[in-house]
């Protein structure tokens, strides 16, 4: 998928840091970062791929989504999803050859990294929690 004008795709995401209270304060694994990408019901133009699609924010929403002064509530999420509908509907889709997956997570991560290098996709997130 890509923007027909070649603009970057920026997806709404959330992140949160979680403290493991069972570990000492100086332990390197005391904090864990968790992330997610927001999804919504797929727009008609993408239903042939999946019944959900990521929420691609229009450029005028990038600063809104990242503004720490804006309350991150359900109303904001709903508005972002609505603003994303025309972006999602306008994406161009072309099929690429599948990359064989032979097992383990290390292998999956390596292949995902290889794929990610070919695009201009960014994920921007706001704190959750």
From TrEMBL:
The keyword Lyase belongs to this UniProt entry's keyword annotation: yes
Residues of the signal peptide: none
EC number(s) recorded for this UniProt protein: 3.4.-.-
SUPFAM superfamilies from the UniProt entry: BB1717-like
Record keywords, A-Z: Covalent protein-DNA linkage, DNA damage, DNA-binding, Hydrolase, Lyase, Protease
GO molecular function: lyase activity; peptidase activity; single-stranded DNA binding
GO BP terms: protein-DNA covalent cross-linking repair; proteolysis
Superkingdom, natural source: Bacteria
InterPro entries: SRAP (IPR003738), SRAP-like (IPR036590)
One Pfam family in the UniProt entry: SRAP
Family statement drawn from the similarity comment of this UniProt entry: Belongs to the SOS response-associated peptidase family.
Name listed for the protein in its UniProt record: Abasic site processing protein
Organism: Glaciihabitans tibetensis
